[in-house]
Amino acid sequence: MKIDQKYLDPNLKDFIDDDKIWEQLNAAKNPDKSEIRRIFDKAKKKIRLEPEETAKLLQIEDKDLLEEMFSLARKIKEEVYGERIVFFAPLYVGNNCINNCKYCGFRNANDAINRKTLTMDELGKEVEVLEKAGHKRLILVYGEHPMYDADFIAKTIKKVYSTKVGRGEIRRVNINAAPLDVEGYKKLHEAGIGTFQIFQETYHHETYKKLHPKGDRKANYAWRLYGLDRAMEAGIDDLGIGALFGLYDWKFEVMGLLYHTIHFEKMFNGVGPHTISFPRIEPALDVPFTLNPKYRVSDEDFKKLVAILRLSVPYTGMILTARESTKVREEVLPLGVSQIDAGSRIGIGGYAEYDEGLIPEKEQFQLGDMRSLDEAVRDVCKHGCIPSFCTADYRCGRTGAHFMGIAKKGLIHNYCIPNAIFTFKEYLLDYASPETKKAGDEVINKTIKKFEPAKQDIIKKKLQLIVDGQRDIYI
Ligand code: SAM
Ligand code: SF4
């Protein structure tokens, strides 16, 4: 099916049926315990849940059932993804924006913001700082502006890949930008993009309309909703969806994310989104909406939504950003998260210009977790998880349908855990503080012992190559 400009027609009916979602949520109230246990059993088999089932999980109030759900989410996370946490950093390229999203610091009418777009030299300097900290994966972020068209974005991707300092290099560049047309996505595909990420913000049509003023490009709900279909059509098969929690009822948004996943599966031979993001709204400079949003999601509900997503879509990566505080991140991480950012600065030029602290007048919102990469990595080790800087999947063609095939067979362990070990060892040798080195080597040793002896030998041999100076080893 050709998916393009026709989605600009605002009268088209899309795959999010607001009334139906509310009917499903209402019908699921006071769920029966035995029915919930049946849904848990299905989730244990790692079968993607149906909307009626997810609706029931969303209505659980019973404390014991909630505890059971949290421990099941931990178990599924471990079984599918292992105790591995992938690290990345966001890099804000430009904050010019033609839209006026009510919740965003970059909105056009916000005079408190200094507008800035990095030059290619400045972009290179930002990348150098990130490489020197040990990052291998970035997500580039842009406002929506004619300046940030597909050619510009492709140029920034190429600049990032070609910037290398010492042993440092960026091996995967993901993008979070306004939706493009198919021709535009093709240019990014050629430039070697990893994942293209678009958050629908809110799946609720009426709320979407209220928060995105008429006449703005972003006001077109359907253009955004089908933005990733166009990316897929252009050959980009790693797609990231998300909702900005706090704009509307959190249970509705979880249902929206699930329907979006089901839509992908229908359209693309069973391949769902590569990642789901669930940012919560954060305060932004001179953006009154962000101070006390009616639908603010409590920490308790946040934990629930992460666990419910984990049970509902077991094979999709889940991203928890540094918008959240260190404490919340530590609590939520084991419930299903597979990727986090660390050492993040979201001011334009925030890495090279300011090593410490905030630059509010260039930031989109405030971050909750300001730990350095080294600290965050060490803390992840303390929780017994293994940090990963792996970017092999995308470079070996393990994306889209192929990735899902691997993930679904549980074989992710055979690739992802060894690759986590290799890339983490590189990090420890090249960038870590002595304290992190110690904690990291302990985790590596523990993780290796979980493999059968023959596999242990293979991993140890490759590790020795890294100790001897080789880099970028993966299987
Ligand atoms: N401008 C593009 C767009 O809107 O699609 C690119 C992404 S925007 C710079 C990145 C994301 O930040 C948005 O999709 C939105 O979900 C999130 N965001 C905006 N305002 C926020 C706030 N106050 N707190 C947390 N996240 C916010
Ligand atoms: Fe612009 Fe994106 Fe912010 Fe909306 S969310 S104002 S489009 S940067």
TrEMBL record:
EC number: 4.1.99.19
UniProt keyword terms in alphabetical order: 4Fe-4S, Iron, Iron-sulfur, Lyase, Metal-binding, S-adenosyl-L-methionine
Protein name per its UniProtKB record: 2-iminoacetate synthase
Pfam families: BATS, Radical_SAM
Cofactor: [2Fe-2S] cluster; [4Fe-4S] cluster
GO molecular function, one term: 2-iminoacetate synthase activity
Entries under NCBIfam families matching the protein: rSAM_HydG (TIGR03955)
Gene3D superfamilies: Aldolase class I
SMART domains linked to this entry: BATS, Elp3
InterPro entries, A to Z: Aldolase_TIM, BATS_dom, Elp3/MiaA/NifB-like_rSAM, FeFe-hyd_mat_HydG, rSAM, rSAM_sf, ThiH/NoCL/HydG-like
SUPFAM superfamilies associated with the record: Radical SAM enzymes
PANTHER family, A to Z: 2-IMINOACETATE SYNTHASE, THIAZOLE BIOSYNTHESIS PROTEIN
Radical SAM core domain span: 81-315
